[in-house]
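Board notes (copied after class):
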Amino acid sequence: MNARSLLDPLTAQFNGSSTTVTIKARIEVGSKRKFARFQLGLSCDVSSIKAKPKDTVLLTRLIYAEAADAPTDDERAAVGWSILNRKAAIKTHPKSTMASFGAKDDIGTVIAHVTSRGQVQYESYSKGMKQLERERASKQAEPRAQGWNQLDRPEQLNCSECAKLKKCAEIAEGILSGTIKGPYAAAGGTYFFHLDQNGVASGERKYNIVRLPKKPNYVHYFWTYDLSEQTQ
């Protein structure tokens, strides 16, 4: 029988854990047309990301967890730079920097810092840690990992999420190497961000925090911290 392989794919959709793509396609066998379904197993290979230096992995997790769905890489970079700017402020102005920055110029410490009042600085990290605590207590993994933890559960990522994670890793590397500049660098750099334009209102009143002009297509608002009046 003269079989012509097909082509003409009609639909593709994610099923189940989002790691299997089901493709519905038209196949021509002789003079008869039939429909068939093919399943292609997909796997998000994160081994190259996890093998990177510790700071790159931490910054990748943070950018992905906080801004995976940001519409532009520029905005993701602005989120990532908030870590580097806080880290630099701790080092250059250790006696006057806001308590929310922490006291050690280390990327992991900046991300995980909790103020004396119990205020977390990066909610995605806090949610990730709480999930791990719940799982340790119940001795059972939850169905879906929080954004911070998804690097450890690549089997849960669909094609789009996998691509975003890898892009966030590229941005993290670029920030740390200095090849990706902060989009608000000329205005003092980013130190805070929030989806609500009033999300840092209390800080604006108490400290030298200034809201930056919102860029087109950004979903986050960003703030800078005026260090010009700070003294060591």
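Comment from the instructor: The chain has a mean pLDDT of 82. Residues 47-225 form one domain.
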